[in-house]
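Quick note —
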Amino acid sequence: QVQLVESGGGLVQAGDSLRLSCAASGGTFSSFAMGWFRQAPGKEREFVGAINWSGSYTYYANSVKGRVTISRDNGKNTAYLQMDRLKPEDTAIYYCAADLIYSTEQGLAAMPEHYQHWGQGTQVTVSS
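Predicted structure written out below.
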């Protein structure tokens, strides 16, 4: 059973940076594409970005492109979400997710239903 645990969330000010981590266990981490999603109160879960299993390809939502970097360390079974120049509208619960089925080398899944395993989420709050 794959387990994902996010960490690194917190309260920051607008313009700050934050790095979230997603630690995986119970599976072959290097086989999974990893995605990051977020969900603000009263809104649907939103795709942030994803990375392929080798880390050679990433894909980002237009809403965060240029401010977000996703990376992974397969030796540590961990994926990362680096967020810079944070805005109040980035406030949400951030989730990491793993996909073994739908993503390809350069065709990463962007729909929540295409990810099979999810973490519990970590809260990010950006004050203005």
